[in-house]
């Protein structure tokens, strides 16, 4: 895998820390800083705890032999956590940024790494790498979050990438394009019934079509029989949410930007 766009030193350091034994203390410091930062906005207190709640739910949920798929691998922190929780499973990572994908392939030697974007049709797409805040790199030009660089990358369907492979857990964070990406995983979702962790951002984010998240909710619930929960819903044993609650969580004051989809009668049904 060629490294045509090597990562800046700062990102390489974040990658190293986030995929090492230093990840746990670094996350503790980050969570503490987030709580302190949010002291002046108590209405956002639950959102500030979201990362910690997600990790707590993952710890309860992911089994040691699960096969995990991380779509939107970024700097590898979630991949590293999944590898810790499922040491006897296989890890597959998908990352559209060539530089990040090359770094992930070097770090996760036993994993399968695909340096592609994902969508509901194969081809080639424009990918906008955010040079200031790389976590906002996307198929949309989110220049409101910092300067971007447009590159052309291959796009593939998840079904084509994975074939008949087993997948127990699927994490997807592709900055607003989760719905077309999971439409390209129709066969996998029907066959494997994985637990899904997906992002759905604020309704007021003008750079992303908020309707895609609503379509994804319907696609997973009505189309595939999933139940949707925010991390705090699962942590506190709350029931699955409705489309109306899903929308309200994403209005200010925000309650959640990441959600678990649990298949009825499948993985995670007894959580």
TrEMBL record:
<dbReference type="InterPro" id="IPR029063">
    <property type="entry name" value="SAM-dependent_MTases_sf"/>
</dbReference>
<dbReference type="InterPro" id="IPR052514">
    <property type="entry name" value="SAM-dependent_MTase"/>
</dbReference>
<protein>
    <recommendedName>
        <fullName>Methyltransferase FkbM domain-containing protein</fullName>
    </recommendedName>
</protein>
<dbReference type="InterPro" id="IPR006342">
    <property type="entry name" value="FkbM_mtfrase"/>
</dbReference>
<feature type="domain" description="Methyltransferase FkbM">
    <location>
        <begin position="70"/>
        <end position="227"/>
    </location>
</feature>
<dbReference type="Pfam" id="PF05050">
    <property type="entry name" value="Methyltransf_21"/>
</dbReference>
